[in-house]
Amino acid sequence: MENNEIKTKEYDLSHLIVQAAPHQRSAVNIQRIMLDVIIALVPALLVSVYEFGMRSLILVATAVIACVLSEYCYQKITKQPSTIKDLSAVVTGILLAFNVPSTLPIPMIILGSVFSIVVVKQLFGGIGSNFMNPALAGRAFIMASWASAMSNYAAPLTQSGVDAETYATVLSGGQSVGFMNAFLGHMGGTVGEVSALALLIGVAYLLYRRVINLRIPLVYIATTVVTLLICGVGIQEALLNIFLGGLILGAFYMATDYSTSPVTPKGQIIFAIGCGFLTAVIRQFGNLPEGVSYAIIFMNCAVPFIDQYTVPKPIGRGGKQGI
Predict the structure, then answer these.
(1) Residue 311's pLDDT band (boundaries 50, 70, 90)?
(2) Tens digit of pLDDT for each residue in 69-127?
(3) How far is residue 304 from each of residues 292, 298, 313, measured CA to CA in Å?
(4) Which residue from 141, 119, 121 is spatially nearest to 131, judged by alpha carbons?
(5) How far apart are CA 164 and CA 183, in angstroms?
(6) Is cis: bond before 262, omega within 30 of 0?
(7) CB atoms within 10 A of CB 170
(8) With 0-12 CB in 10 A as exposed, 13-18 as middle and 19+ as buried, what is 322?
(9) SS3 286
(10) Gyration radius of the chain's alpha carbons
(11) CA distances from 214 to 105, 110, 200, 255, 256 (A)
């Protein structure tokens, strides 16, 4: 009896907490992840300023301020705790500005920022609850509202003697560019998409910091190229498509968004294949020259269904019973 009492006291389990996985937790938080993404986007921003001038920096700064203020004001009005310190609104502002031409009027980027934060993010519960990438949704909103302004691309400062008013990108029927110019960013496009090299420098940093993995981006890009080849595009043009438009930006920085991508490896592969297929089809057969934004948005909407069929069910909750 005495021995039993001693054992009971020694192995008292009443203080233990029973909870669902994960049991091992990381010290990394949202703010640290978002700061890493911001750092990764700096090289692309610098190239944009070099190619399009200070207008790019002004547009990015405006979008960031508008996104942060939108989040702060919404949470103040609805009496919610402020989350602006997690830097997610800053990342949304940068990515939104990266997806528009440097000539876009300031009021339009402000309205797009408000739409991204209030309608797409906050009304659905804030970060982690939004079903669609806020920056891409904001771009789609601006595109639907002011299509002509979204097609008014500035000529790069590195290309002399080009009229900015009539400049067309490669995907919209403009003058073709070689692999090296496309890789370095000596071509027209939106603020943050033109330099694959600058974006990939940021990707290397994110991989080093373990913020993203290569599963979604590589499958996305490979599917785009294969689909273009199936559609009759030559291999050289199909490979060039990797560096054109927002494919690198979308594949590595937006398709990998934690909140709007599947949670399992199998689901992520399905998601990436869908993004790549839709991107290629829109580029090849659609009226719009670019398909990345709409492809990712469409697949964002499909994520709940992908998760439904790819996330394993716990034993005893609708799945097959174990032995």
Answers:
(1) confident
(2) 999 999 999 999 999 999 999 999 999 999 999 999 999 999 999 999 999 999 998 88
(3) 20, 12, 15
(4) 121
(5) 21
(6) no
(7) 20
(8) exposed
(9) coil
(10) 23
(11) 35, 33, 12, 11, 9
* Each residue's pLDDT tens digit, 177-198: 778 888 888 887 889 988 999 9
Per-residue pLDDT of 258-279, as tens digits, reads: 989 999 999 999 999 999 999 9
- Whole-angstrom Cα distance, residue 133 to residue 120? 8
Please give the structure tokens belonging to residue 203.
């990707």
Domain spanning 30-307, CATH architecture: Orthogonal Bundle (1.10)
- Amino acid in the structure at residue 318: G
Using alpha carbons, select from 193, 183, 218 the residue that is nearest to residue 135: 193
Domain extents in the chain: 30-307
User: Cα–Cα distance between 231 and 209 in angstroms, integer?
Assistant: 37
Residue 233: Cβ within 10 Å count: 18
| Helices and strands in the chain, H and E counts | 14, 0
Q: Are 166 and 151 in contact (CB under 8 A)?
A: no
Ramachandran class of 157: left when φ > 0, alpha when ψ lies in -120 to 50, beta otherwise:
alpha
For the beta carbon of residue 294, count every other beta carbon within 10 angstroms.
18
pLDDT given at position 245: 83
The structure tokens 């000529």 sit at: 155
Please name the residue that has the structure tokens 């009226």: 287
What is the sign of the dihedral through the CA atoms of 192, 132, 254 and 247? negative
Which residue is associated with the tokens 């829109």?
282
Three-state SS for 290?
coil
Confidence (pTM): 0.85
pLDDT band of residue 248 (cuts 50, 70, 90) is very high
Using CA atoms, how far residue 73 sits from 51, 68, 117, 122, in Å, is: 34, 9, 11, 11
